[in-house]
């Protein structure tokens, strides 16, 4: 049940993000991994059942990719908030994306 909710949430965010992204090509390139991985995970979930933790981590990573594609990584509002909070020289959102790419 929780996996279905995560999947529906990610798909809803993906659809909404595609309405008016900053740059359509960037959106496509950044969200394409989500569009490829989601059907594969759904098709193979019975044979290779992921743990609840893995499902949450994949969903978080998908949301990071979707936000990065919608705004482009340099313009994600959460990154600007972190930039101000920690007095960084630039928006660090791309680092969050790279961290989760390695983690997941």
Topology of this protein?
Blueprint lengths: L1 H16 L6 H21 L7 H20 L5 H10 L6 H11 L1
Q: What would you note in describing this structure?
A:
Helix content is about 75%, strand content about 0%. α2 packs antiparallel against α3 (about 50-70). The mean pLDDT is about 95. It is mainly α. The protein is globular. The two termini are about 20 Å apart.
The level of helicity is: over 70%
Estimate the mean pLDDT confidence: 94
Give the H and E element order. Answer: HHHHH
Largest sheet entry: none
Notable traits:
single chain, 104 residues, 75% helix, 0% strand, globular
What is the structure about, briefly put?
The chain contains 5 helices and no strands. With 104 residues, it is an all-alpha fold.
């Amino acid at each position: 049940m929780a996996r279905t909710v995560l999947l529906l949430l990610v798909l809803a965010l993906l659809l909404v993000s595609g309405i008016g992204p900053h740059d359509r090509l960037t959106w496509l390139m950044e969200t394409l991994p989500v569009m490829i991985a989601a059907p594969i995970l759904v098709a193979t979930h019975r044979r290779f059942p992921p743990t609840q933790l893995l499902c949450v981590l994949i969903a978080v990573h998908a949301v990071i990719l979707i936000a990065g594609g919608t705004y482009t990584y340099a313009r994600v509002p959460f990154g600007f908030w972190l930039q101000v909070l920690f007095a960084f020289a630039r928006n660090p959102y791309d680092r969050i994306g790279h961290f989760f790419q390695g983690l997941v």
